[in-house]
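Hi L.,

As promised, Zinc finger CGNR domain-containing protein:
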Amino acid sequence: MLVLTVALIESSVQPGGRAPAPEPLALVQAFVNTVDREHGPDLLDDPDDLVAWAEYRGLEPPAVIEHAREVREALRTLLWANQAPPARIPPEGASGPVSAPEPDAVAAAYAVLDAATARLSPRFAPLRLEGDDALAAVLSAAFLAIADGSWTRLKACPGHRCGWAFYDRSVNGSATWCSMRVCGNRAKTRAYYSRRR
């Protein structure tokens, strides 16, 4: 488990051999990927792990883990919504895929982010949201990516129990899975057996 925790802290895991997102989205990607929903470690379950993640990036750790968890899952919901056409998203503990995020879920995600950014100050030269911890840096990076149009390339894998954030470098922005060999193949296999039943 320690090896997986270190991999999450350092963001050294990139399924499918994908390159990490460019800055500033790499920080958002690393933050969303502070949990391995399939294999277990969650850096937000242990304050020391969250401190290690923030310090690895030269940032001040967030004061309240619950806020960090809410922001992370709100960002993941928005990354699932970046799938086009809408991907089929599995809820926690589900045995199979379900529908993409409902508009209410996306609106709720934006409400969480609005509340989190209320404590930040806008700056214009250069454009950023300024705050004093890692959460502020993540939110500022998301804000900049939305402003510059690169946000839609950061997606969350719709694979069962995955949700891994990845950067879509395909020409037409049509990548769906963090790894076609793993999550994509699993989905194809489930669909095949479902049709055979």
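The CA atoms of residues 98 and 126 lie 41 Å apart.

Thanks again for sending the construct details.

K.
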